[in-house]
Amino acid sequence: MGAVERPHQGRHRGARRDPVGTALTVLWGLGHVVTLALLGSTADHQLSTDHPVVAPPARSLPDHDPDV
User: Which is it for the CA torsion 39, 45, 48, 50, positive or negative?
Assistant: First the structure.
C-alpha cells in the first residue's frame, strides 16, 4: 500500500518555533498594554482634578489712557 501524502497545514507539533517571531509578538503585545495603561492613567488624572485649570491672571496693568 502506498503512503498517503497530505499537504502541510500549519505547523507540526514537533517543529521548532521561530524565536524572533515570538519575541516580536511579545513586544507588540507589551507595547499595546503599556500604551493603554498610559492613556488610562492620563485620562484618570485629567478627570480626577478637583478644580478646572484656570489661566493665571495677567501680570501687567490694564491698558488705560495716560492723560486721565
Answer: negative
Query: CA 63 to CA 61: how far, in whole Å?
Result: 6
The phi, psi pair for 26, rounded to 5°, reads -65, -45
pLDDT in tens, 27-58: 999 999 999 999 999 988 888 876 666 666 66
Mean pLDDT score, 9-35:
87
CA–CA distance, 49 with 66 (Å, rounded to integer): 43
Identify the residue with better confidence: 1 or 20.
20
What are the distances in angstroms from CA 17 to CA 7, 11, 21, 23, 28? 20, 9, 8, 11, 18
Q: For the chain, how big is the Rg over CA atoms in Å?
A: 32
